[in-house]
Specification:
- The protein contains no helices and eleven strands.
- It is mainly beta.
- Strands 2, 4, 5, 6, 9, 10 and 11 form a seven-stranded mixed β-sheet that branches. Strands 1-3-8-7 form a four-stranded antiparallel β-sheet, with no helix packed on it.
Length: 123
Amino acid sequence: QVQLVESGGGLVQSGGSLRLSCAASGRSFSTYGMGWFRQAPGKEREFVARINWVGGSISYADSVKGRFTISRDNAKNTVYLQMNSLKPEDTAVYYCAAKRLGVAVNPSAYDYWGQGTQVTVSS
């Protein structure tokens, strides 16, 4: 069992930066693939970034590539999402998720979810 708690969201102006954190509790965190997803009002949850258990395999959605960076610190049971050059279209609730085996971009493949943190980017 893994519990996930996101933090770091907030209100930022266009072009600004935020760093999201996802703290995990439970054993074997280092064996889980981790993903960040987001959901804007009236839209489906979408993939943002994912990282495998050792951090050697990373991928991003095209919409955030070059602006966002996912990383993890297994010693701290935490995964991060550094978001730079934020745009109003990045406004959404951001969720982290954990997957027992491997990594994926499909949210239905993930086993555990956090409660989400709101990111609002003003123009």
